[in-house]
User: What shape does this take?
Amino acid sequence: MEKCIEEIGSGMFGSSVFNESVMQERLPKATYKKLKKTISEGLPLDQDVAEVVACVLKDWAVEKGATHYTHWFQPMTGITAEKHDSFISPTDDGRAIMEFSGKELIKGEPDASSFPSGGLRATFEARGYTAWDCTSPAFVKDGTLYIPTAFCSYTGEALDLKTPLLKSMEAISKQALRILRLFGDTTSKKVVTTMGPEQEYFLVDKEYFLKRKDLIYTGRTLFGAKPPKGQELEDHYFGNLKQRVSDFMHDLDVELWKLGVTAKTKHNEVAPAQHEMAPVFGTTNIATDHNQLTMEIMKKVADKHGLACLLHEKPFAGVNGSGKHNNWSMSTSDGKNLLDPGKTPVDNAQFLVFLAATIKAVDEYADLLRSSVATAGNDHRLGANEAPPAIMSIFLGEELTNVIEQIETGVAKNNGNSRTLEIGVTTLPVLPKDTTDRNRTSPFAFTGNKFEFRSVGSSQSIAAPNFVVNTIVAETLSQIADRLEKASDFQAEVNAVVKEIFKNHKRIIFNGNNYSEEWVAEAARRGLPNLKSTVDAIPALIADKNIKVFEKHGVLTPTESQSRYEIQLEGYVKTVRIEALTMVEMVKRQILPASMSYVKQVADTVASLNAAGADSKSAKGALDKLVALTSSLSANADTLSDLVDHLDDHTGESLEHAKAYKEKVIPLMDSLRADADKLETMVDANLWPMPTYGDLLFKV
Ligand code: ADP
Ligand code: MG
Assistant: This one.
């Protein structure tokens, strides 16, 4: 066992990463020191340092088998992008040497014109550039050196998800430090946000996957009758792993460990064929890069095992969808978790300030938070009878809620003891970390020393949800700091601020069942927004207060906010359009032909029965139903196809376009599916043109 741990520790883990220990070992001392300072203090990198690092980095990568390098970036497609260049440089005497300069390390110039820019492009040239993000380590994968980078236009607008994330981390660090200084912390150099994203996914047999055009084109099933068994027996969650799944998970761990991804927990999830992987948390920026890598490696490893990994938020109707539980906290550079209540009155007071800031932020920017997880895929989870709902609220648990109520009213009510709970003087009751009342239905749950944002979709990048959380908490921290810095009596002001926030924002706290009808009604009474779909949620991106908060903290300019609004709407339309067209194709070329063959068989049977003078009533009944369904299916497919053509010829304003897709296209897709799914239960199984839900969910 020990040997095994040692091998992972020294041999395998991070073996493909240009990490801290490699840098320390290989870089000249002075360069190492300068680079470290650049990374930890966010300083600009100087050219001489870059030259030395590039040279060492290239030698290291070549030893690892690399022949190429790429600037790895995260355009607003939600996935990563890369363009490979070799290290080869021809010499005059016909040979070639391996070369890599500091300039090539710190800056790349990919053509930006084919990436989503939401209209930004109209205002500048097509050129874009990538800039080395030295806070996230480079790594070697598939014979290529990957250099994590930010992606911007030539005029400086961010064209990616990483730039605003990095800026939001600077913003929250600046504001959190102001608070820490007031509490007497003189040593922390910065505050980082920490992130542990739990990734849910499905595994299906690759052969079946390849026989389903819907899975290939859209990542989810657009048709499929319910199988006799679903998730009702609750026999999958934490169940033992099938051999193939276990082998996949093992390989996945190894591949991720090599890349420095701290894959930690793995288990079966609630739905059949659904699983989860959680890493050990890290700095949000690196965790975001690692989550992108995780999704990519999951697909690759699955493929090697004859499986297909589905990352879509709702691959199957009728069983649970997949999310990404975004575990978020703030930590000092010395590793002190700011959402840990601590044991002394002073620590408690500081914790309550950071807690209050988070509560206020979620309440005031619930709409913006909701918009950060708004995609066509996630609409099938949020606001669609599945956890968590589209209404943003915070779960604090009974103990902490009690504390807050005591602070707010100034009266302690536990133990029959009537002392007042005075912030900074009395010690908080110890809050249990893993309480039995852990609430699995809340979109934003406090789990002892961190918040878990559960609305994030399984396939989306975690960058946007995180830059939103970071920015809105930076804002509330800055408001609190403004007050505390001016206060003559610090402790009294802490008391007043926290009390006021709990009083004014307690409507966002809800510890009950978030799936219930009662909560929807209660939330409406409390005035909380219920933005059910992407189309309802996205306009928040250009609400005045939201544009302002991004601008104030230097995370997005108003132009960038506007462009992201356009991109998200465009993305929605494109997704639904591809789904609609895939449905039309599957109906016309697969489902209708199969159904028609069966109609003919049944019609022949009716004729034979009649000719033989036998009772043909039941066969005739089946025939009538089949004919009615096929006619309706065929007519709806034509209507859907015409509708999509029509909408695309009449592209108006993006929000109107997206609304038309939601209000007209999606209902027609639903009718198409209803007819086809009924046909699936009637048509001869041997004629049905694609694997069924039973095949996909149970035959791995
Ligand atoms: P759960 O019961 O929800 O699975 P865990 O304690 O296992 O809770 O944590 C789930 C995820 O939260 C893991 O990825 C873990 O690394 C991460 N996590 C734990 N502490 C923090 C923290 N302070 N900041 C961010 N993420 C954290
Ligand atoms: Mg969890």
Q: What stands out?
A: Residues 2-160 form a domain with the Ubiquitin-like (UB roll) fold (CATH 3.10.20.70). Residues 198, 325, 452 surround magnesium ion (ligand 2) (CB under 6 Å). The longest strand covers residues 191-205. The longest helix spans residues 558-611.
